[in-house]
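quick one
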Amino acid sequence: MRFDIFTLFPEVCETYLQTGILEKARQHNLVEFHMHNIRDWTYDRHHTTDDMPYGGGGGMVMKPEPIFAAVESVLGSPPTCPVILMSPQGRRFNHKIAEDLSRLPHIALLCGRYEGVDERVVEHLVNDQISVGDYVLSGGELPALSIVDAVTRLIPGALGDPDGAWDDSHASGLLEYPHYTRPPEFRGWKVPEILLSGNHAAINRWRREQSLLRTFLQRPDLLQAQSLSATDQKALDQLKKSLDLPNENIPDNV
Ligand code: SAM
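structure w/ S-adenosylmethionine:
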């Protein structure tokens, strides 16, 4: 899969893209990252990429000409792949969107700065807008990296463990079970006995139950969106009963 990232600050992204799973995926030719500095498509003496907003008000707005020139010179006109603007006004990014994007051969991510981009970029160049959450960051680079990372993890072969992405939180609609590693006891806190038992069927059952329990406790909204099997529902009911919580903390509609 190919990612083209258009930004005024490519250096912000480079180290992250060259680290860990993203770098390994690139080395195995599963992904290609192409960074483009929008400033390279400015033709005035000062390499201007932003200007004051029409109508007044504070802040600067990213000019349309360098953005159109950058995207069209790299991707053609019209662009040969979806061009996604990073924006707090976009649809909120989640696992499902990451999965959908991971099936595409090529996407482009456009990072805004300042007050954002001239609206004609939104109307006539981009096909989609994605937000990473209901808060405002100073630039689209972190959102773009979040998308590249989440999408790359879902490309078959990108994770060493073939089940890795499927086990992760959100992939199955639940949060993942807790993890422990050596030592078996740290400051008197012991690893749950079952994980040391070598009984893989029992471990899998325990993990499933823990997954249900922590989703119930930490993200009951996710559980509400699930249709649980009879076995899961029974396990969850038992876990709910065993909880030592005041009644008002236990939602009973999941
Ligand atoms: N004035 C804009 C608004 O209120 O909608 C916010 C501009 S923000 C300071 C600058 C850039 O950061 C945006 O153009 C966008 O590319 C990026 N950005 C900020 N918050 C974001 C978010 N939650 N999700 C995705 N991109 C975001």
